[in-house]
Amino acid sequence: MIDKVHRRLSRMREDGRLIELLKGSGLVLMFKILGALGGYVFAILISKWAGPSGYGVFELATTAIMIVAVLSRLGLESAIVKYISSFHIEQKFGQIRRIYGISALAVLALSTLLGLLFVYFADTVALWFSDEQDVVLLTQCFEWVGYLTPVFALLQLNAEALRGLKRMGDYSLLQNGTIMLLSVLFLWLLMENETVTGLTAVQAYAGAIVILTLVSFVMLLRSHKRDLNGTDSEKIDFKQVLKTAFPMFVSGSVYLVMSWTDTLMVGAYMSDESLGVYRFAFKMATLITFAQFAINSIAAPMISGFSTQKNVGGLRAIIHQISWLNLTLSFPVFVVFFFFPEWVLETAVGESFADGATSLRILAIGQVVNALCGPVMNTLNMSGYEKDTQQIMLWTAGLNLLLNFIAIPSMGITGAAVATTISMVIWNLVAGYKVYRYFNIISLPIPWRWRPK
């Protein structure tokens, strides 16, 4: 038995894929941890200074910018990861430059248009989620969202381009965690001159996004010189890129809608205070999968490379390694959140958020299933099965909307947690089945001897 363990460890040490995964994901994970800390400090500060209502307003604003930005990107941020990774392996550097340039222009034009439309209709949208007393504040927040949309859309496109080039250090720095760290800094600067409200939090968030977007362009210029040798752009079939991007756009849009349906419906049916409590519980639950995010960020270009090379053995090995890493890093956090949710929330922000304990316990179940199923969505997206992810997300989004519509009016934020968790479990299990069907790979962390060869 001991000899088998030693042989297994020896093979793992010799496996270059695992070493690359651990090194890269370790860097992303470090930024993710720092960013998570910044995000929770930011949430705690807003909750303490502006109360659950102020935090609820901030969450509505960030939900809006996420949705508008996704519509602005047309799925191109996901498609260019796949194409840039493949072009880089084939050393088609000129095509990398061209695909980024056209994508950036398309995203900038559409995001500017949608952002201005959102500014124009900000007061109308605010009335859907707030009463007349608070509508002015929420309208101001939504106006900031509209102006910020082009900047935020380009930041995410730039980050994904760097990810495709395997510039994981740069990619890590451009994630939401760094935004939250900078937001804490801007919040401290703003609080010296005014009372902290949901609008103050949005302004701090906007300042962080602008700074990081400028940094992202510097990173791209540096990468152009180092990775692409300053190569001039070459002609590509951008229609084919759009064909690849569209299913990713649909699945990404549906995923976002599903991710934020609970937030929007809690905001519509309940008070800003209830929304603030629910969103804080949700944010805590995502700590279970923050390691998975780091690992999957590294894995996506590797999966694309294995798919391009038709290397099913390499694909199987990397998925199996990811499944065990996810188990090791996510399950201990799940145990704490599931058995001690009241202690977690009261320690973080106090008794005013204790009503979210049941929601935290339920959401933790969905997050741990998401972690244990591994990179199933990434595997389908990066291997030419984008339409499968599109169909999975469409069906589960419809289910999620229906469940939230039924559960929130009768069960409140607990109903939102139940709807979100059921949807998350279903989409992971169905995607896991698809990966098994297409590649004969079981993504769950099960013993090696039970896995198909």
TrEMBL record:
Q: Does the keyword Transmembrane helix apply?
A: yes
InterPro entries assigned to the protein according to its UniProt record, in alphabetical order: Poly_Biosynth_Transport (IPR050833), Polysacc_synth (IPR002797)
Primary location class: membrane
Listed CDD domains: MATE_Wzx_like
Q: Which UniProt keywords apply?
A: Cell membrane, Membrane, Transmembrane, Transmembrane helix
**Membrane-spanning segments:** 21-43, 55-76, 99-122, 142-159, 171-190, 202-221, 241-260, 280-303, 324-340, 416-436
Q: What is the annotated localization of this protein?
A: Cell membrane
What membrane topology was assigned to this protein in its record? Multi-pass membrane protein
Name any GO cellular component annotation. Answer: plasma membrane
Classification via PANTHER family: POLYSACCHARIDE BIOSYNTHESIS PROTEIN, PST FAMILY PREDICTED COLANIC ACID TRANSPORTER
Specify the protein name: Flippase
Q: Which organism is it from?
A: Phaeocystidibacter marisrubri
